[in-house]
Structures are given as C-alpha cells and as structure tokens.
Design a protein that fits this description.
Helix content: 10-25%
Number of domains: 1
Largest sheet: 8 strands, mixed
Order of helices and strands: HHEHEEEEEEEHEEEE
CATH architecture: 3-Layer(aba) Sandwich
CATH class: Alpha Beta
CATH topology: Rossmann fold
Number of strands: 12
Radius of gyration: 16 Å
Distance between the termini: 26 Å
Number of helices: 4
Structural class: alpha/beta
Length: 193
C-alpha cells in the first residue's frame, strides 16, 4: 500500500483513540518491552510523544529506563537542516515544547548516534518485514543511518502490522515492534504474546 494512503489511515485511527485507551495501551507496551533481550545495554534513545498526534506515551518506558539506571537520550529536531541532535536526559534537563508540539531538551550533553545502543522509534505504520512509515520528514531515517550496525531499533505501535509497505532500498528496517498485545521480532520472524 502507498505510504500516503497509510499515513492518512493511521492518523485517522489514532484520532479515534480516547485518552484513556492511549494511556492503557502505552502502559501495556511498556510492560511488553520488559520481555525484550535489550536490558544489558547502557545507552537508550527514547522519543517524547507529541500529544496532539496521539503518539504512544513513552513516560512508562522512561520510568522503566530510569528504574534500571540506564543512560537516556532524547532528541531535538532542526527543521531547517532536517537533522536531529541527541542529548543525555538528566534530572536538570529543561524541556520545552517546540512549535511542532515536540517536547525537546533546551540544551545539555550532546551524545553521538554511534554510541546509542537501543532506539525506541516512533511510527505511524509498519509492515511484517519491519519497514516503518513516519510523518514523512525523514528525521528518523537519517538518524538511524548514523547509528552503529549493532544498534537495536524498536518501533512502538498501538496497531497491528500491514502486510507490506513499499519501501526504498535505503530504508532501515526495525529489529522489533511492540504493540499492547505482542512483541514482533523481525530478524527471527518470531511473535511473542
């Protein structure tokens, strides 16, 4: 299915979600994440949700990472360059909401993408091969290309996979996707409930 059509479909599906169901499913996603074989790593990148777009609330995952004493990295998008800068999230990190509704660090200790080991990736839709669709600006595509080949990319979604998304050869697939009910391991073609 075409990316444009899928973007519209999943934006509409999200619009129909209640705040209560978003919170409940976001908590289920965080609980599913505990089953992943990723907890021996140190550097974890997490996105902070755009509330107006009804994204997965990553606050629950954030609490898990803090509880496990992990180094947490958040990003700041530069819409002029199309790039993101990544900062260590600390107790004194000041967050501001950008004009696009994205909570972002004002400043801090900048972290190179090459040392980030686990990246929780926002998405609108994904397919059974681990290809994802975002909002179309390419921020995460450019970011993931700069990460180590050993980095683990994990999509978070309220919804099930599409059969297939037509993706460019250069698109970097996810290793896993977490839904409220499932963990999908794309590299080993396994599904955990």
């Amino acid at each position: 299915m075409e990316k444009k059509v899928l973007r519209l479909k999943y934006k509409k599906l999200r619009e129909n979600l209640s705040e209560e169901s978003i919170e409940e499913m976001s908590l289920q996603i965080a609980n599913q994440a505990l089953k992943l074989p990723i907890w021996d790593k140190t550097y974890y990148h997490i996105f902070l949700p755009i509330l107006a777009k009804k994204e997965v609330n990553t606050e629950y995952l954030l609490h898990i990472l803090q509880g496990k004493d992990k180094s947490i990295i958040v990003s700041k998008a530069d819409f002029d360059s199309g790039e993101m800068k990544h900062f260590l999230l600390q107790e004194n990190t000041v967050l501001n909401t950008s004009e696009y509704g994205i909570p972002e660090p004002v400043s801090g200790i900048e972290i190179s993408p090459e040392i980030i080991e686990v990246i929780f990736v926002p998405l609108l839709a994904y397919d059974q091969n681990g290809h994802r669709i975002g909002y179309g600006k390419g921020f995460y595509d450019r970011f993931l290309k700069k990460c180590s080949p050993h980095a683990i990319f994990i999509g978070l979604s309220f919804f099930e996979a599409e059969p297939e998304i037509f993706s460019a050869v250069t698109d970097i697939p996810l290793n896993f996707c977490i839904t409220p009910k499932k963990l999908i391991d794309f590299k080993n073609n396994r599904l955990s409930l």
